[in-house]
Each structure stands twice: as C-alpha cells, then as structure tokens.
Amino acid sequence: MKFAKNFANTIESSWELRTDAWPQYNMPVVYENNGRHTLTSMRWGVWPWYDNGPKPKTGYVANARDDKLLNSSVWKESAKKRRCLVPADAWLEWTGPKGSKWEVEFRFKDHRPFWIAGLWSEDPNSQGRGFTLVTTKPNQLIAALPHDRMIVILDQQGAEKWMGSQPLPDDELLGLCKPYPETELVREDMPRPQRTKSSSADLLL
After folding, report:
1. What are the tens digits of pLDDT across the range 16-55?
2. Which residues of the chain have pLDDT under 70?
3. CA 175, CA 134: separation in Å to the nearest integer?
4. Strand, helix or coil at 128?
5. What is this structure's pTM?
C-alpha cells in the first residue's frame, strides 16, 4: 500500500489490508478532499441516489460503464465532481461454463501496482460512502475469456488527470477510458474446481 500512500497528501482512515476484494467490502480509495489527495476506506458499491430506504432495494452498483458516464443519472454528477482512484496490483475475472467456472488473475508482467479509475458518492442516508469501478471495452486478453468489459487502468499521468472534483472536458474524460494494452499484462488461471459425478456443479451443466 506504499504505492497509494506516496500519492496521497493525507490519510483519512485505516483499513484492513486484503488479498481479495468483493462488492460491499471496504477497500482503500484515493479521492480529493478540500483540494488534497486523501487516502481513505470506502465500500465497493454505490448506493444510487434515487433508491431510498434503510438499504438499497436494487443493490449496490459495483461497476460504471464508460459509455454511460455522461448521460446516466446515476453517474453524470460523480463523473464531473467525484472521480477517485482505486489502487491494486492484480484483478480477477471469472471464466468457464456455468456451474464449473474458475477465476483468472490479470496483472502487469513486472508485478507493479496500478490505478483503477473509480467514482464515489455519499449514500442517500448520508451515513456512508461507496465507490464504483469504471469499465470500458476489453482488450484482446480479456475478450478471450470471453468478456465484453474490462476495468479502466490508468498510468500515473492518467491518474493525475482523472483525480479530482472539477469537471473534465467530455473528450478528455472519455479519452482516459480505454482498454489497457494487453502486451503489458499477463494472465494466470487459478485452480479449476474439482468435479465429481455427484457434485452440484454437474447438475448445473
């Protein structure tokens, strides 16, 4: 996490360092607070502003499509004023047939950490905050899973441009949302699930 701490001006709260991440987990995020890069912890998943109640009826939203950022009522204000960065050193995707899927890890060949473009917002009840990951069309490595979306990975220059609470020109915002070149990434398949004739996985095929 030194990677994220070096980018931040202040540290707002502590968190549990995790080796895995799932929606609704609290994860480290860097966002702009009073003009300063602030490292904090937020829930992975945005509670849509229109979904009132003690809990979101439709669930937390974990991903935001880049082609929806400028016109979706869920994302357009956050895309203008609440852009954040999520540090990571790898990410996982699912592949395989229904009932027998396995995880595939993607990372940089040199194992370096990187930034994922994110958006954050306050919960409608003003008692929490959540973030979402921005996704774009896949590069060839991700498309081979097959998947039709991938996370937006930013280099340091792109992270500096993305970060902030001031609107970016539309073309500049969308220009940062592009598939990262597959030539710099590597794929590693995780162990596949063990299946037997009596397993529930067999019944789902």
Report:
1. 666 778 899 999 999 999 999 999 999 999 998 888 777 8
2. 14-18, 194-205
3. 13
4. coil
5. 0.90
Among 117, 95, 91, 118, residue whose Cα is nearest residue 19: 91
Pair 48, 56: CB distance under 8 Å: yes
Long-range pairs of 177-182 with CB within 8 A, sequence gap ≥ 24: 177/66, 177/69, 177/117, 177/134, 177/136, 177/152, 178/136, 178/152, 179/136, 179/137, 179/138, 179/139, 179/142, 179/150, 180/139, 180/150, 180/152, 180/153, 181/139, 182/139, 182/140, 182/141, 182/142
Please tell me the predicted confidence (pLDDT) of residue 15: 65
Q: What residue ranges do the domains of the chain occupy? A: 2-192
Which class would CATH give 2-192?
A: alpha beta
